[in-house]
Amino acid sequence: MAERHQPRILTIPAGLPFLKTLATTLCDGRLTPLFRHDPDDPLSLAGVTIYLPTRRAVRVLRSEFVDLLGGRSAILPVIRPLGETDDDSGYFDEALPATIDLAQPLSNTARLLELARIILAWRNKLPEIVRHIHSDSPLVAPASPADAIWLARNLAELIDSIETEDLDWSELSKLDTGDYAAWWQLTAEFLQIASAFWPERLSELGKSSPARHRNAILRAEANRISTMTPAGPIIIAGSTGSVPATADLIAAVANLPEGVIVLPGLDLSMPEKHWPMVAPEPAPGQHANPASRSHSQYGLSSLLKRLKLTRADIALLDRPEADLDRRAEILSRALTPAEATSDWGAWKNDLPEGVLSSAFADVSLIEAANEREEATAIAIALRLALERPGQDGDSRAALITPDRNLARRVMAELSRFGILADDSAGTPLAASLQGTLLQLLLEAALRPGDPVAIVSLLKHPLARFGLERDALISATEALELLALRGGVAEVDISALGPLLAHQLAEQALDRH
Questions:
Q1: 86 and 217 co-located in one domain
Q2: What are the tens digits of pLDDT across the range 102-120?
Q3: Phi-psi region at 83: left, alpha or beta (left = phi > 0; alpha = psi -120 to 50)
Q4: Given 266, 286, 347, 477, which residue has the most CB atoms within 10 angstroms?
């Protein structure tokens, strides 16, 4: 009887730089015993395939390899993002193409507009339920095309969630809303857009849903990998397998002798008695508690169940410094499932003296009064960090935040110190000079009465209005002083001339 293949699954703790550690351990042979980089062979890495969660991670890992190679010429590994491609070429080798019996996905913008069009059509034929909710006053929902776009965006997110989880829209028909308020019946009618009308529209367009197309690509790649003989290691790193199709791909790679799975920050310090509480199995006939999904380890716990593994089967790829290791353990206890928080007191009493202070010796808490103060404090902290040399001689500091507004504020504050920060998320079109000019034009034209929008438009760096920059600045200051400040009349950009003449006439009559 053939011996069962033991998957090689490792984890990189949260206290280490994930992608740098991944690149280093691959090259030095710790990631897999089947591969070690040969510095004298520029093709040594060419047979390695690595899957990462996002395009940004792909770019950063390539940079890490370049730094690690020290400028030597080499063919880098094939590095692909999971589920973030516009075509099949991001996944399949040209020599071994996989066929997908599915039309090309509809772009996000086109989908938004198509859904908005269906929503407006639904609005014009609201079900009879609505007429009886407020019989004394008309109800219009959505009230405008702009409302339809916002509603379409929310509906698109719901469609993606349902299809990502491979759920069936037909389950909606089982909902019995007869005993609930009329709004529930209206909601059920509205969701027919996603369950009935949207699939028909996609068929008319000859397109497929982005989520279903991504799932098909991932599963096709899983099938391809399962039947091929890899030229080198195949590695999936940084994914929690929260998307079922991704979990299928992870399972396929884990079953390969050359396959390696690297999990991000699996909590190996949580007591074994608490671990089942992270992703508890529902009782027979019951649904899982949605609150359990909020735990940071829920995805990893579910993935291990999918792979039929336990934490004991997962090896630690590297270990951070002792203080960082202890900090991770403390944070693990802080994130203990709610059912186990009664153990906090006993655990803290058993901690050796000085452990908490040493683990958080270089951690500071700043309670800012507002966003500007928060951004200024972060910018100063980054500025001070850059004064200290790093381990390789270069000073580096980073801000990690999901708040894009905070990131932009910090970048603006850093510019006051002469520091040009590299925003890895890029600059949104709406935040670019061209984008802000377009927004101000729309604000001034479509929302008359706001003098701030008009003045901001006149002062925009790209605005000229047929004048030289200096002349425009002088004219704007004069207009603001004579016509826009202190007045109570409605300001309309199309009537600035008459408004200015009126204000000048009033000031001429005012002898005080």
A1: yes
A2: 788 899 999 999 999 988 8
A3: left
A4: 266
Find the radius of gyration of the CA atoms of the chain: 29
Coil, strand, or helix at residue 8? strand
Measured between alpha carbons, how far is 220 from 236 in angstroms, rounded to an integer?
Answer: 16
d(CA 480, CA 415): 29
- Return the residue matching tokens 């990462």: 52
Overall size of the chain counted in residues:
512
Quote the CA–CA distance of 32 and 28 in Å, as a whole number.
9
Residue 13's region, left for phi above 0, alpha for psi from -120 to 50, else beta, is beta
Highest mean pLDDT: which range of 144-148, 172-176, 284-288, 387-391 = 144-148
Tokens of residue 507, six digits: 């000031």
Partner residues linked to 259 by β-bridges: 234
Q: Same structural domain for residues 352 and 387?
A: no
Burial 158-172 (b: 16+ CB within 10 A, else e): ebbebbbeeeebeee
Which long-range contacts does 387-392 make (Cβ < 8 Å, 24+ apart)? none
**Measured on CA atoms in the order 319, 320, 322, 327, is the torsion positive or negative?**
negative
What's the pTM? Answer: 0.78
Domain at 96, CATH number:
3.40.50.300
Q: Are residues 136 and 91 in the same domain?
A: no
Q: Which two tokens mark 413?
A: 């504050």
Q: Do both 251 and 313 map to the same domain?
A: yes
Looking up tokens 């966003």 gives 371
Task: Domain count for the chain, please give it.
Answer: 5
E strand or H helix that includes residue 122? helix 108-124
The string of DSSP codes covering 376-423 is HHHHHHHHHHHTS--TTS--------S-HHHHHHHHHHHHTTT-----
* Whether the Cβ atoms of residue 21 and residue 318 lie closer than 8 Å to each other: yes
What's the chain's average pLDDT? 84
37 with 93, same domain: the answer is yes
Same domain? For 242 and 173 the reply is no
Last residue of one domain, picked from the residues 409, 426, 443: 426
Q: Domain of 352?
A: 323-362
